[in-house]
Amino acid sequence: MGFLSNTAKKVVFWNYSRTSWQWDVLCVLILVFIFLTPKSWFENTEFRPQRTVVLAAEVLGGQPDRSMIEQRAKEVAGRPDSQVTRVETLRDNTGKVVGYEVDIR
Q1: CA geometry: angle 23, 29, 33, nearest 5 deg
Q2: Which of 2, 17, 24, 60 has most Cβ atoms within 10 angstroms of its Cβ?
């Protein structure tokens, strides 16, 4: 039992020197993991980063409705299949609409 516990302790606390065969095996295992791990293990296809698009009121013209704002924001972002999470109206000091801030996911 002493051999197994000593070996386990050495592996956990890594008491091997750089010139030992154990160090070489560890380096080979790390390289094998790096080069042979499929890329799909690290991809998260469900997560799409949120992006904020700001549209000037002149671009949309007049009094656009929400669907028109969403459609234009998707076009500008280049992501027609995305989902709009928030639309906020931007106003200047006088209360005049100057643009729309749209969050897309």
Answers
A1: 145
A2: 60
Q: What single DSSP character describes residue 49? A: -
Beta bridge partners of 51: 104
Measured between alpha carbons, how far is residue 102 from residues 14, 15, 38, 49, 89 in Å? 52, 55, 36, 14, 9
pLDDT computed for residue 49 by the predictor:
66
Structure tokens at 67: 């669907």
Distance of CA 59 to the CA centre of its chain: 30
Task: Reduce the DSSP state of residue 99 to 3 states and report it.
Answer: strand
Distance CA 26, CA 33 (A): 11
- Separation of alpha carbons 29 and 38, rounded Å: 15
Q: Does pLDDT of 28 surpass 90?
A: yes
- Asked if pLDDT for residue 59 goes beyond 80, the answer is no
Which DSSP helix (H) or strand (E) runs through 97? strand 97-104
Query: What is the reported pLDDT for 7?
Result: 79
Q: Which has more pLDDT, 50 or 55? A: 55
